[in-house]
Amino acid sequence: MKVHKINFSVFTSMVAKVRFKRAFLLTSVFMAIIFLWPACNSDDIGENYYTFTGETVGQYIKNRPESYSEFTHILDTTGVMGLLNAYGDYTCFLPDNEAMIRFYQSEGKNNLGDFSVDALQKIAFDHIIKNFVITTDDFVEGFLTKQTMSGRYVDVGISSDESGLVYTINTHSEITERDIEVHNGVIHSINEVLSPTDNTLVEAISRDENFSLFFEALVATGLDQEISLIKDESYVPDPEYVAMENANTIYNYARVRVPRERKYGFTALMESNATYAKNDIHNLDDLKAYAKNVYDTMYPGDASITDVTNRKNSLNRFVAYHLINKKLPMRLFIEKYDNTGMNYASTGETHSVKVVDMFEYIETLCPNTLLEVRTLRTTNEYNIFNMISESGPAIRLTDNFDNDALNGVYHEIDNILVYDANVERMLSTKRLRMDVASFFPELVNNNIRIGNSLIGGGLFSERWFLPNGYVDRINASATTEVHYFNADDRFMDYQGDELFLLGLYDFEITTLPIPPGTYEVRFGYQPTHLRGVAQLYWDGVPTGIPLDLRLYANDPDIGYEYPGTDARDPDGFENDKAMRNRGYMKGPASYTVIEEWWYSGASARMSEDVLRRILGIYTFNEYSTHTFSVKAVKSGEFMFDYLEFVPLEVLEYEDIY
After folding, report:
1. Counting beta carbons within 10 angstroms of the beta carbon of residue 203, is it exposed (0 to 12), middle (13 to 18) or buried (19 or more)?
2. What's the rounded Cα separation, in Å, for the pair 161 and 393?
3. By the 8 A CB rule, do 321 and 560 touch?
């Protein structure tokens, strides 16, 4: 019997508030019980579990030839049927026979015998999501965050009629029977075959007449070539970790994973022809003049560059600022990171403490520029781009979002997007908190950043082994093992995720470009007794004495006091000052832990298991990237949660969040 959802209330009173450092053995015992529990024979286990029919996904399909014989033939011909009869978790969008016949006709074929085996396998893979059970309770409008086996996102539309909710997939296919729960997954019957486009992002934009002027500029600048990559064909996954993944290995309470591919991805934020017309831009010359007015003011030293293919030319900068080297469906700009939580759909529990706005920072293809994406709690909005103030101008997506392509996605925006003095001033006068995963496009493009905990169906998060060279912004020695834990309910981490090092590590990342200014730079982490000691470096220069990651916040050398325990300091502000004098800060009050296995507290600020180390005060004379490096001084684990860049003028009035 395969159990997909487990109610841990039986254990909560004994385990919830016992931190890992004090109760490793006790937690291990309960984990062992959990591993053994699913070995029972009964499929009727109560309301907190799925109830299974006894059929696998493959058996369900094969046992109903009157409805699904055509798709059965595809699965048998390609060998995919064996996969769907195997142990695991699968979501299958299942086209009926009538849908298959219409698909053959639309492709100019008579039957499946007219397709190659490779083409049939792609059809099968387009309809299957592996490792995740996704019911309609998990659906939201827009792309699902997990890709199909063919590496494509499934686009969900939700509407209603007199009979209730109506779910459409990839615009044209309606779910006719939903949430059919079987032994190894869930099935949604659909009335049209899913056939995602094979067009690249550039090809997809070229076919959309609403964006013909932007496309003309894209080609004129040569930036269409910059967003044409699809996959790194030279990448070969580590066979040791492939074997561990195939064996469903659990290591340190997480599923071991290794990237099977190294795909590229891109996003285009584009104004329509109609939006340009409202701004008196009707042709390429008008757009050149508009771009020149903005970017020659920002970069006066480059005003004489007339070659539009030069990356410092004003039109080139204009177009490039609309392009991102991550494939970002609408919900992956920021919404999913704000809503990390395995049971978010049913409970609303997230790592984010939603009393203040969350911000995400994205590098564009315009050299040394950032794009800010934020929430706006006052209006319950996501995807607010470059808002100058709480009530000031901003860019938003229109209803024309999530236009999919083989190697990217494009969205329409409601006004003209530029990087000007107002945007730079906004970015350089606020605290910039950057989650570790935000530095690495590869984690989004290969479906690594959004993990198992966002869509129900599993206890464990995913622990991804990142081979040397896989992530461009990471430079690690041969003795360094780099791992990434995606969002886990049991971590007291910002956005729930973390980078994790093992071995005699010597590790360096390149940051996103930071605006000019003088900043206090901070490193966010969790101490545990399993950590080691590391020397930290900023731009190659040591940042004081080595950091002992084994010391909890209440160690005398750090001096954390739980806010409220001292009547003379009810808010903990005086203790904040004392900690700062020692080079440390409490965690922010903006995030928390969901499942109190190892960590507890209403927020990271209210936990002695979360710290920020102040790396120093640094002046950046120009917009540029920087390096953050760590070298092992004493063996043990190293974890990396986020970096903060705080302008000096902000320190005086910085909040606790």
Report:
1. middle
2. 37
3. no
b vs e for 635-657, b when ≥16 Cβ sit within 10 Å of the residue's Cβ? ebbbbbbbbbbbbeebeeeeebb
The span from the first CA to the last CA of the chain, in angstroms, equals 45
Q: Please report, as a single letter, which amino acid is at residue 181.
A: E
* Mean pLDDT of all residues in 180-198: 94
Mean residue pLDDT of the chain comes to 88
The two three-digit tokens of residue 197, written as one number: 């486009």
Candidates 306, 97, 292, 106; CA nearest to 195 is: 106
Tokens representing residue 307 in the block: 């070659």
Q: Residue 482 and residue 470: Cα distance in Å, rounded?
A: 10
22 DSSP β-pair partners: none
pLDDT of residue 345: 67
Token digits for 381? 């909005």
267 touches 412 (CB < 8 A): no
Burial 333-352 (b: 16+ CB within 10 A, else e): bbbbbbbbbbbbbeeebbbb
Q: What is the mean pLDDT of residues 24-44?
A: 34
Quick one: CA dihedral 182, 185, 188, 194, positive or negative? negative
- Those residues with Cβ within 8 angstroms of residue 630's Cβ, 6 or more apart along the chain or in another chain: 501, 505, 506, 507, 508, 534, 535, 536, 537, 638, 640
Domains along the chain with CATH numbers? 57-190 (2.30.180.10), 266-428 (2.30.180), 452-651 (2.60.120)
Write out the two tokens for 422: 């107002």
Q: What are phi and psi of 267, to 5 degrees?
A: -130, 135
Mean pLDDT over residues 446-457, rounded?
60
Between strands 541-542 and 533-538, the pairing is antiparallel
Question: What does the DSSP 8-state code read for residue 407?
Answer: T
3-state secondary structure 118-140: HHHHHHHHHCEEECCCCCHHHCC
Q: What's the pLDDT score for residue 43?
A: 32
The pLDDT of residue 408 is above 90 = yes
How do strand 541-542 and strand 506-510 relate by DSSP bridges? Answer: unpaired
Name, in order, each residue with C-beta under 8 angstroms of 272's C-beta and a sequence gap of 6 or more. Answer: 210, 211, 398, 400, 412
B/e letters for 509-528, b = 16+ CB within 10 Å, e = fewer, are: bbbbbbbebebbbbbbbbbb
CA 449 and chain centroid, separation: 4
**Which tens digits make up the pLDDT trace of 129-177?**
998 899 998 887 778 878 899 988 898 888 888 888 999 998 789 999 9
pTM: 0.86
Closest CA to 499 of 573, 565, 448: 448
